[in-house]
Amino acid sequence: MVRFITEAMAPVRYARQPGVFSRRRDDLNEVLVHVGLRVNDAGRLARGAAASTLDEAAQHANSLRAELRRRGTHPRVLAYCTQEILAKNAFHASLEAAKSVFDRLRQLTGEQLDGSRLVDAVLMPGASGVPQVAINTGVTTTERDEQKGFASLIKGLGSMYRNPAAHDPRLNRPVADEELLELLTTLSMVHRRLDTARTQP
Predict the structure, then answer these.
(1) DSSP character for 46?
(2) Do the domain assignments include residue 60?
(3) In this structure, are 44 and 91 located in the same domain?
């Protein structure tokens, strides 16, 4: 069995498909971790901590979290979807992560709206000419365009990942790990812009 795993998981077999190597290694590790073994980066069996529960097994085996850490994913994003990531449920992880931005806008402003109405109310200039949450000074045309683009980006993310996921069954909306990584990276950028945003009463 050891020889079979070593040969099957030889990295050279996956030179053009590194994603397949990662997925297979994760799947194997989720089982092997129960007996204190794991497949390492070299595709070989190595000893490691043994897991006694399914949650522990998922946590030890999951490389998606390691990639999110490498990318410096914003902690506010992870706070909303870590349990779904550990459960390898990319569909629900994308849904919960998308909610994080709307929740953050409500926290920053005290508004109780949601979706596009919330974004328009807090990120667009409105009657006062100054948005409640401004990501720049809004003095130049370029900055005003950037503010509008930021609002449109958040609306788009909500329309693409939050709204359909809330209504369609998971079976009809598969989300691959690569897509989830890209979404969480984008949401991290949004949260970082909100970290430095100015808020108006």
Answers:
(1) E
(2) no
(3) no
pLDDT score recorded for residue 165: 60
pLDDT at residue 64 in the model: 78
70 belongs to a structural domain: no
Residue range(s) defining the domain that contains residue 37: 2-53
Calpha distance 24→103 (Å, rounded): 36
Q: How many domains in the chain?
A: 2
What is the token pair recorded at 161? Answer: 């990942």
Q: Is 79 found in the same domain as 174? A: yes
HEC readout, 141-168 = HHHHHHHHHHHHHHHHHHHHHHHHHHHC
Q: Which residues of the chain have pLDDT under 70?
A: 55-63, 66, 86, 165-172
Query: Can you give the pTM of this predicted structure?
Result: 0.71
| Residue 154 to residue 57: CA distance in whole angstroms | 35
